[in-house]
Amino acid sequence: MQVRRDKLTGDYRIRSFVKTPNIGGKITPDTIIIHYTAGVNADRVVKYFTNPKARASSHLVIGKDGKLTQMAEFDIKTWHAGRSYYGGRRKFNNLSIGIEIDNFGLLTKKDGVYKTWFGEVVPKEDVLKARHRNGGGLLYWEKYTDAQVNTVFDVCEAITKAYNIKFILGHEEVSRGRKTDPGPGFPLEELRNYVFNGIENGVVATSVLNIRCFKNQRLLV
C-alpha cells in the first residue's frame, strides 16, 4: 500500500474513491486522527458523508472486513475533528487526516444483553469490558476486528512515509471530555510504536513485527 497523488493505491483492500462534498481547502497534514463511526455499518457511514447536510466527513472509512473507502485526497481538509485541542494547537481539521473505523463504540448491558445506542444487539464474544484512557469505570465496548487493525497499521505506515506525520492521535485525545473514540478497544500506543519506532529508513524493524500479530483477545481485562 502506498500514497500517490494524495490517494492510497496498490492494495486489494482499497474498495473505491467516493468523493465527499463536505470538504474545505488545501492542508499540509502532520497528524492522523483515529475515530470510530458509532454507526450501523461502513456503507451507511460512506453514504452519510456524501450528504452535504451532514456537515461531516473523513478521509477514510474502514469496514469490519478491513477494506476501505477513500473520500477525499489527503491534502484536502475534511470535517472529522470538530472542536479540537492538543499540544497547544487547535482546529485539527486544518492539520490532520481523519480515519473512521466501522465500530459501534460504547455499548450498554441489560439483562446480559449488549446493545448499541440505536438498539442493535452485539454478541458477547465481540464485547470488551475496559476502562477508557480518559478515566471512568469499567464500561462495555465493541471490539475491533483484526482485519481492521491490520489495515489501520498499513494505512498509517503508508501515510507517514508520504507526509511529514508527527502525531497519531485518537479523537478522544484532541476532543477530551467530548469524544471517546476510538476507545480502549483500539491499540493506539501499539500503532504509534509501530509507525514511529518501527520504521527505520523505510524498513519495518523486526523487533516490532510481533505487533502485527495483534489479537483482540489480548485486550480483555
* H/E element order: EEEEEHEEEEEEEEEEEHEHHEE
The backbone outline, from C-alpha atoms, is: globular
Most strands sheet: 6 strands, mixed
Structural class: alpha+beta
* The first-level CATH class name: Alpha Beta
Catalogue the unreliable spans.
Answer: 200-211, 213-221
Strand tally is 19
Strand numbers in spatial order across the main sheet? 3-7-6-11-5-17
What's the total helix number?
A: 4
Helix content class: 10-25%
- Averaged pLDDT, please? 90
* Reported CATH architecture: 3-Layer(aba) Sandwich
Question: Any idea what the CATH superfamily is called?
Answer: Peptidoglycan recognition protein-like
Q: Per CATH, what is the topology?
A: Lysozyme-like
Kindly report how far apart the N and C termini lie: 33 Å
State the domain count. Answer: 1
Rg calculated over all Cα atoms: 17 Å
- Strand proportion, as a percent range, falls in 25-35%
Task: Give a verbal description of the structure.
The protein has 221 residues and is of the alpha+beta class. The chain has one domain: 3-Layer(aba) Sandwich (Lysozyme-like). Helix content is 18%, strand content 29%. It has 4 helices and 19 strands. The chain is globular. The C terminus is likely disordered.
Topology (SSEs and partners):
Elements: E1 2-4, E2 7-9, E3 14-17, E4 23-26, E5 31-36, H1 42-49, E6 60-62, E7 68-70, E8 76-78, E9 85-86, E10 89-90, E11 96-101, E12 106-110, E13 113-115, E14 121-122, E15 127-130, E16 139-142, H2 146-162, E17 167-170, H3 171-174, H4 188-197, E18 199-200, E19 203-204
Parallel strand pairs: 3-7, 5-11, 5-17, 6-11
Antiparallel strand pairs: 1-2, 4-8, 6-7, 9-10, 12-13, 12-16, 13-14, 15-16, 18-19
